[in-house]
UniProtKB/TrEMBL annotation, chain A:
This is Heme-copper oxidase subunit III. Gene3D superfamilies: Cytochrome c oxidase, subunit III, four-helix bundle. Residues 1-197 form the Heme-copper oxidase subunit III family profile domain. It comes from Candidatus Methylobacter oryzae. Its main location: membrane. PANTHER family: CYTOCHROME BO(3) UBIQUINOL OXIDASE SUBUNIT 3, CYTOCHROME C OXIDASE SUBUNIT III. The lineage of its organism: Bacteria, Pseudomonadati, Pseudomonadota, Gammaproteobacteria, Methylococcales. The chain crosses the membrane at residues 21-47, 63-83, 95-112, 132-163, 175-195. Belongs to the cytochrome c oxidase subunit 3 family. InterPro entries: Cyt_c/ubiquinol_Oxase_su3, Cyt_c_oxidase-like_su3, Cyt_c_oxidase_su3-like_sf, Cyt_c_oxidase_su3_a-hlx. It is found in: Cell membrane.
UniProtKB/TrEMBL annotation, chain B:
Belongs to the heme-copper respiratory oxidase family. It comes from Candidatus Methylobacter oryzae. This is Cytochrome c oxidase subunit 1. Its main location: membrane. PROSITE patterns: COX1 (PS50855). InterPro entries: Cyt_c_oxase-like_su1_dom (IPR023616), Cyt_c_oxase-like_su1_sf (IPR036927), Cyt_C_Oxase_1 (IPR000883), Cyt_c_oxidase_su1_bac (IPR014241). Cytochrome c oxidase is the component of the respiratory chain that catalyzes the reduction of oxygen to water. Subunits 1-3 form the functional core of the enzyme complex. CO I is the catalytic subunit of the enzyme. Electrons originating in cytochrome c are transferred via the copper A center of subunit 2 and heme A of subunit 1 to the bimetallic center formed by heme A3 and copper B. It is an enzyme of class 7 (translocase). One of its GO terms (molecular function) is oxidoreductase activity.
């Protein structure tokens, strides 16, 4: 067997895209974080299915603002993707612009979401729904904030000239995390905003 | 295409890894040692990322926790030795059995296995370190700090007191007003971080850093066991972290997750806890079974019978393990259909475990066993495994469980499982790998004594507990009345416990004696088949002077058994010495894929771990400003850690920045 393994090919050295350890690491991180959100939503469904309370307390949720906000978050994901594409072609100016744009969209999402929170008539401790609503969206908010900081740091690194088409694993890895945060939001959004219309 | 052309100003982005050999004492070997050596003194101790150092630290720390938990147990056994004793108050007894459970389950049984795996994986896989050496250091530090955190309220008489599975409502703010449960809740979230990053490290290490030719079907069973446990942890730990976090929110911010008065459900706790808890039981036994599957064949002079069957059954056990959590909740009034389903899975799960038992028995049968201490521990383990498995199958039967639930039958069962399947293989594993760890053999006479004393003491201490259970003695009671008819059995149990403890003591004495005066060990004193025995004992800092090329499951037994794959090459292989380097291979076939740059020693893991722990201290003590400051400190440590480095080729080297390529 040892003979059939090619041993004299030139190999990339160091953190090269999807061959880097970090890429594998973030995939595993996403698996565990996805489980965390699964358990959170499980708790929501478990409690909601047995409740005798008014659910959600304020009646069916208003969809316009959260809907637009969802679109904003998804657009931000697209920007990160575009940033990576530009890096692959060594278009540094563009990649910086896309990353900056993604970052700003992330901040807008946070601002809008904070505003949504302040409009609620109840808090964490007022009732069971409030506990669930604020914990679930709070967990997600925490991930968005971490993500926004990551995007900012990536922007800094790109502008310092650390990356070009040959080495940009950090952007791939950070970007994947951001896509994950955005996809999770779709599940949270569906659970908290859309399903009440169905059930 | 080839940047491989020599360039003096920095490392190149691709190159053909150079082949060669580097015997001890050669210039190449000295250069490697220099590259991988840590700074001496406390600086090196805080910053080292060497998996061997971290592995030993895990083993020693976990063992100290075992002793602490053991002392707690002995105090309980003193209290229970005779009826109507007053050595302990009920509250003290509660705290003792809770801390005993927490310590044994969370601070001893998994970390000790992580210790073995940390030390052995890179050596077994033919790599120079784990995939993420700094993450490895981080996971150790967080484990240590979480252990200290969980014990911080013990001296104040405010330790967790609601049992290790901490059911609400008893652990809720209403019935448990002190800091006891908050310590447990936050400590477990902290420990969860350590477990998770450790698990991620194992998974990536397995898929990325095996030596060329070590395809997935050639890795030792210990690796399978730890991998399965790691995958389970990645999916299961968030559940318990979340449960504890929600509990903490309930207690501290007045949320209503478990609060019955406001629509919360205490059963939610049980679901979240056991979705984690049952896979966890397998997490703490599968790697230990791996230890046996790897070490037993060495002493039987025969390869493990049914390698593939054992590897597959390891994973099957875990898959089923996710489907049996309900069996801890049979007595909670769930619908009968659910009970039947989960009861059936619980019975089925004994099948894959049976496969492993038969594989071991067949290996012993077909081989020519060498009856030394390590073998005794593994053989003893097989017997205890059978007994523990049997009483387990009994409680999987729903009607019987309703009868035995919360009696000493359960206590007996769980000790047979945990001591039998974890402690015995672990001690056997130490006897087996001690020569590799420290370059000295352990004393056989003391070794045999330690085994027989432990084995006899254990059975004397725990077998009668089955009887106590059938006689109706409930668990978790701090004393009992003389006329219950439990007195003699309890006395025997207590005596057995102390005999068992004496056995452990002999083992510890043996450790120290052998460290000092053990006869020097050769590279392969047991004539074992796997790669870790190809390097000197103790292994040099860089592990393998050249990355070996592997051609079979038993690289060191190839002249004896022909597996038809050709010969492994152990002295001639990749040199990889332009900085700390190792080879990255493809996930299944282990074909060379990338030259991995390994990080230098770093303080970042220690400080991130420290700030992370202090953050939890801030939360516990309600110091918002301090907590915020620690969040900031964590961010800074992370930034330092993650900053892309030229030396690791995480960013483009300066010398040809902007140069056109194509
Ligand atoms: C010298 C060895 C040991 C002795 C004498 C001992 C004794 C005891 C006793 C007396 C209890 C309390 C029973 C009750 O009141 O309900 C207990 C509980 C327990 N023990 Fe041990 N034990 C020993 C070793 C271990 C080990 C090595 C483990 C795990 C690896 C372990 C895991 C547990 C667990 C999980 C509990 C249940 C705690 C709870 O009820 O919350 N024990 N043990």
């Amino acid at each position: 067997m040892a003979e059939t393994i090619p041993l004299d090919r030139p190999l990339p050295v160091g953190s090269e895209g999807r061959r880097s350890g970090g890429w594998w690491g973030v995939l595993a991180l996403i698996a565990t974080e996805a489980s965390l959100f699964t358990y959170l939503l499980f708790s929501y469904f478990y409690l909601a299915s047995q409740t005798e309370q008014h659910w959600p307390p304020e009646g069916l949720p208003e969809l316009l603002v959260p809907g637009v906000n969802t679109a904003i978050l998804l657009t931000s994901s697209v920007c990160v993707w575009a940033c990576e594409r530009c890096l692959q072609r060594s278009m540094m100016g563009w990649s910086m612009a896309w990353m900056a744009f993604a970052h700003i969209l992330g901040i807008i999402f946070v601002a809008v979401q904070l505003n949504e929170w302040s409009k609620k008539a109840y808090g964490m401790a007022s009732n069971l729904y409030g506990s669930l609503y604020f914990t679930i969206t709070g967990f997600h908010m925490l991930h968005v904030i971490v993500g926004v900081v990551i995007l900012l740091v990536l922007l800094l690194w790109i502008s310092l000239g650390y990356f070009d088409h040959r080495r940009y694993a950090a952007v791939t890895i950070g970007g994947l995390y951001w896509h994950f945060v955005d996809v999770v939001w779709l599940f949270v959004f569906t659970t908290l905003y859309l399903l009440p219309y169905v059930g | 295409m080839t940047d491989a052309a020599k360039n003096t100003s920095g490392p190149s982005l691709t190159r053909v890894p150079e082949m060669g050999s580097a015997p001890i004492g050669s210039a190449a070997e000295r250069r490697l040692a220099e590259l991988w050596e840590s700074t001496p003194g406390w600086r090196g101790r805080l910053s080292t990322v060497d998996h061997k150092v971290i592995g030993i630290r895990y083993l020693v720390t976990a063992f100290i926790f075992l002793l602490m938990g053991g002392v707690e147990a002995l105090i309980m056994r003193l209290q229970l030795a005779r009826p109507d004793q007053t050595l302990l108050t009920p509250e003290q007894y509660n705290q003792l059995f809770t801390m005993h459970g927490i310590t044994m389950i969370f601070l001893y049984s998994l970390p000790v296995l992580s210790g073995f795996s940390n030390y052995l994986w890179p050596l077994m896989l033919g790599s120079r370190d784990m995939a993420f050496p700094r993450l490895n250091a981080f996971s150790y530090w967080v484990f240590l700090f979480a252990g200290i955190f969980l014990y911080c309220s013990f001296p104040l008489g405010q330790a967790p007191n609601a049992g290790w599975f901490n059911y609400v409502p008893f652990s809720g703010a209403e019935y448990n007003t002190g800091p006891n449960i908050d310590v447990y809740a936050l400590g477990m979230v902290l420990l969860g971080i350590s477990t998770t990053v450790g698990a991620i490290n194992f998974i990536v290490t397995l898929f990325r850093t095996r030596a060329p030719g070590m395809s997935i079907g050639r890795v030792p069973i210990l690796v399978w066991g730890t991998l399965t446990a790691a995958v389970a942890n990645v999916f299961a730990v968030p559940s318990v972290s979340l449960a504890f976090f929600l509990l903490w929110l309930d207690r501290q911010t007045g949320t209503h997750f478990f609060d019955t008065l406001n629509g919360g459900k205490p059963l939610l706790w049980q679901h979240l806890f056991w979705m984690f808890g049952h896979p966890w039981v397998y997490v703490v036994v599968l790697p230990a079974m791996g230890i046996v599957s790897d070490a037993l064949p060495t002493f039987c002079r025969h390869p493990l019978v049914g390698y593939s069957a054992v590897a597959l059954s390891t994973m099957a056990t875990m898959l089923l393990g996710f489907g049996v959590w309900i069996h801890h909740m049979f007595a909670t009034g769930l619908p009968p259909l659910a009970l039947s389903f989960f009861g059936a899975t619980s019975l089925v799960i004994s099948i894959p475990s049976g496969v492993a038992v038969f594989a071991w028995i067949a290996t012993i049968w077909l081989g020519r066993p060498v009856f030394n201490t390590a073998f005794l521990f593994f053989a003893g383990f097989v017997i205890l495994f059978a007994i523990g498995g049997f009483s387990g199958v009994m409680t999987a039967a729903v009607p019987l469980d309703l009868q035995l639930n919360e009696t000493y039958f359960i206590v007996a069962h769980l000790h047979y499982v945990l001591l039998g399947i974890n402690v015995f293989p672990v001690v056997g594993g130490i006897y087996y790998w001690f020569p590799k760890f420290f370059g000295r053999m352990m004393n056989e006479t003391l070794g045999k004594w330690s085994f027989w004393v432990m084995f006899v003491g254990f059975n004397l201490g725990f077998f009668p507990m089955h009887l106590l259970g059938l006689l109706g003695m409930p668990r978790r009671i701090y004393t009992y009345a003389p006329h219950m008819g439990w007195s003699t059995t309890n006395m025997i149990t207590s005596i057995g416990s102390f005999i068992f403890a004496a056995g452990i003591l002999i083992f510890i004495v043996n450790l120290f004696v052998s460290l000092r005066r053990g006869s020097p060990a050769t590279a392969n004193p047991w004539d074992a088949p796997t790669l870790e025995w190809a390097v000197p004992s103790p292994p040099p800092v860089y592990n393998f002077a050249v990355i070996p090329l592997v051609a079979s499951r038993h690289p060191l037994w190839e002249d004896r058994i022909d597996e038809g794959g050709g010969r492994s090459s152990l002295d001639h292989g990749y040199l990889l010495m332009e900085g700390r380097e190792t080879i990255g291979t493809t996930a299944l076939d282990a074909i060379p894929d990338v030259i991995l740059k390994m990080p230098e020693d770093s303080y970042a893991p220690f400080f991130l771990g420290l700030f992370n722990a202090l953050l939890f201290v801030g939360m516990l003590l309600h110091w918002p400003d301090f907590t915020a400051l620690m969040v900031l400190a964590c961010c800074v440590s992370l930034a330092v850690w993650m900053w892309p480095r030229k030396a690791l080729l995480q960013r483009v080297p300066d010398y040809d920045k902007g140069a056109a390529h194509g």
